[in-house]
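Action item from last meeting closed. Structure (368 res):
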């Protein structure tokens, strides 16, 4: 039987040669294959102008300098969501807390609302055999359950969970860093997906880090590099919950803390994270063969109830430019792969179960 030295050497060689290696991280890994989105094509014409404002959205057609604008529409599909769960199974999580957390996670993975989400999991300290150095983040870069779609992956995920939390010590820094390495590389390989990390812990850490400043540097770097967010669930435990640490990790990862200090709330919090993360990110479909993609000649339309007159949302430069108004923006203004709907418009669209979303190519974007 090949021991930990061989496996560690193999892992390092694998990650260092992977297509998804990111210099910032030193080593990373990606899994899976990309998805393509498409849709039906229709042609619309309009009288020009930027349109009137109505109902919080910009309406009407855009113009070109040559007169009436002709655009071709493609159906916009929601961005696939990939979740890496990072689960603390150290001794302080033992008993009721562990049972409540794992039961909620099992229900989440089997919930019809989670169907289509891609999910994987890693535990800290490691449950892998023959590893004495639990502080090596590379160990956690290899997920205990690889990412795959739900509900198909639910069986592997639920059966991977130990019967109780008896692990020791608490290498939060290594576990989170390793998971983020994999998340960053997956986001790099699958730019049309939205990859997030969900950390469930009481916030204790006693090894593997230079302190909280080092721990929070990893979710901050992941978010800044390619938008990977870190969500944090504060779990009831036999120890006091370290809310200061968990708030700092969540903030660094671009989110807010989800408080499950009452373990009965865990299921509610993970559902909230699912709904928030699914959000209003849409893969930018390829334009038809006869139209070249010009980022400044794209519009995003929303048809309330799936019928009637489409409403054209104005384009913002970025999230900050959205303000409290309606609109959308690119994930990258120079090389876009996603359209992200501004918060105000996202709420409206999420509340409209019959909404029809399309991307129009060939006409100047309506500015906000």
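Sequence:
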């Amino acid at each position: 039987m090949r021991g930990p030295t061989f496996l560690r050497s193999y892992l390092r060689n694998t990650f260092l040669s992977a297509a998804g290696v990111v210099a910032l991280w030193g080593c990373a890994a990606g899994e899976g294959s990309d998805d393509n989105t498409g849709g039906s094509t229709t042609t619309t014409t309009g009288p020009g102008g930027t349109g009137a404002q109505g109902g919080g959205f910009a309406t009407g057609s855009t113009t070109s300098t040559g007169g009436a604008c002709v655009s071709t529409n493609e159906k916009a599909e929601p961005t696939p969501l990939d979740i890496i769960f990072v689960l603390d199974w150290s001794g302080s999580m033992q008993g009721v807390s562990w049972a409540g957390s794992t039961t909620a996670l099992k229900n989440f993975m089997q919930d019809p609302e989670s169907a289509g989400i891609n999910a994987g999991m890693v535990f800290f300290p490691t449950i892998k055999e023959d590893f004495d150095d639990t502080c090596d983040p590379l160990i956690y870069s290899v997920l205990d359950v690889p990412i795959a779609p739900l509900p198909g992956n639910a069986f592997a995920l639920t059966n991977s969970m130990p019967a109780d939390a008896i692990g020791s010590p608490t290498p939060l820094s290594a576990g989170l860093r390793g998971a983020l390495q994999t998340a960053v590389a997956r986001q790099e390989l699958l730019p049309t997906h939205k990859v997030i990390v969900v950390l469930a812990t009481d916030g204790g850490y006693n090894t593997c880090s230079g302190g909280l400043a080092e721990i929070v540097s990893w979710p901050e770097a992941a978010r800044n590099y390619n938008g990977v967010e870190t969500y944090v669930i504060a779990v009831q435990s036999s120890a006091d919950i370290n809310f200061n640490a968990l708030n700092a990790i969540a903030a660094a990862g671009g989110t807010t803390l989800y408080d499950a200090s009452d373990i009965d709330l865990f299921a509610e919090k993970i559902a909230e994270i699912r709904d928030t993360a699914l959000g209003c990110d849409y893969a930018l479909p390829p334009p038809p063969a006869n139209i070249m993609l010009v980022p400044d000649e794209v519009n995003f339309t929303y048809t309330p109830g799936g019928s009637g007159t489409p409403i054209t949302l104005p384009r913002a430069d970025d999230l900050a430019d959205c303000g409290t108004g309606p609109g959308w923006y690119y994930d990258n203004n120079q090389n876009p792969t996603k359209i992200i709907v501004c918060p105000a418009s996202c709420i409206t669209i999420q509340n409209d179960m019959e909404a029809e979303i399309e991307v129009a190519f060939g006409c100047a974007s309506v500015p906000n």
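Note appended to the action item: The domain at 80-278 is CATH 3.40.50.410 (Rossmann fold).
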